[in-house]
């Protein structure tokens, strides 16, 4: 990671990291986001709250946010005020926190069950994964060259 950060800094490249499952995870928000590496971090509420909530958020340096805000105003890209008010209510009432805790618990429970069942299949090898993530990666023993 340090090498990627150094190259991006050297060549003035901004990393855009998109993580729609951020709110459903327990671990750090980003591999790259820190004070020294130019990163724009974007996420969404549509994967963790509801697919009908087409609204997200951006985390970046003040200068990047200022530029993005100007661009947003010029292009007139925005979310409906109704959706913004719904999200504001979910956040300020604590309902979002309660929902996300329940989602994390359910996800961990289902992941553990899936791992137990998949481990019963001879030859499957589980790759290291994020225990609070939504995906599992397995190596499947097969010869793809055989017809």
Explain how this protein is built.
The protein has 147 residues and is an alpha+beta fold. The protein is 41% helix and 12% strand. It is built from 4 helices and 5 strands. The protein has a 3-stranded mixed beta sheet with strand order 1-2-3, with no helix packed on it. The protein has a two-stranded antiparallel sheet with strand order 4-5. It is globular and about 55 Å long. The termini are far apart. The mean pLDDT is 83.
**What is the overall shape?**
globular
Trace the largest sheet across and list its strands: 1-2-3
How many DSSP E strands?
Answer: 5
What's the overall average pLDDT, rounded?
A: 83
Biggest β-sheet strands, sense, barrel: 3 strands, mixed
Bin the strand percentage. 5-15%
Note the run of SSEs as H and E: HEEEHHHEE
| Helix percent band | 40-55%
Rg from C-alpha positions?
20 Å
- Low-confidence segments, given as residue ranges, are none
Distance between the termini: 40 Å
Number of helices: 4
Secondary structure elements and pairings:
Blueprint: H1 2-10, E1 15-18, E2 39-44, E3 56-59, H2 62-75, H3 81-93, H4 95-118, E4 125-126, E5 138-139
Parallel strand pairs: 1-2
Antiparallel strand pairs: 2-3, 4-5
Give a nutshell description of this structure.
41% of the residues lie in helices and 12% in strands. The protein contains four helices and five strands, in the order αβββαααββ. The strands form two sheets. Strands 1-2-3 form a three-stranded mixed β-sheet, with no helix packed on it. Strands 4-5 form a two-stranded antiparallel ribbon.
């Amino acid at each position: 990671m340090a090498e990627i950060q150094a190259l991006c800094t050297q060549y003035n490249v901004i990393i855009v990291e998109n993580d729609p499952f951020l709110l459903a995870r327990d671990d750090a928000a980003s591999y790259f986001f820190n004070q020294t590496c130019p990163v724009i971090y974007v996420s969404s509420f549509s994967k963790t709250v509801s697919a009908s909530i087409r609204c997200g958020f951006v985390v970046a340096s003040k200068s990047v946010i200022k530029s993005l805000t100007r661009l947003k105003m010029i292009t007139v890209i925005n979310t409906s005020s109704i959706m913004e008010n719904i999200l504001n209510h979910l956040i300020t009432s604590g309902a979002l926190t309660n929902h996300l805790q329940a989602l994390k618990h359910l996800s961990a429970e289902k992941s553990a069950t899936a791992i137990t069942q998949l481990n019963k299949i001879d030859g499957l090898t589980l790759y290291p994964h994020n225990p609070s993530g939504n995906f599992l990666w397995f190596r499947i023993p097969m010869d793809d060259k055989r017809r």
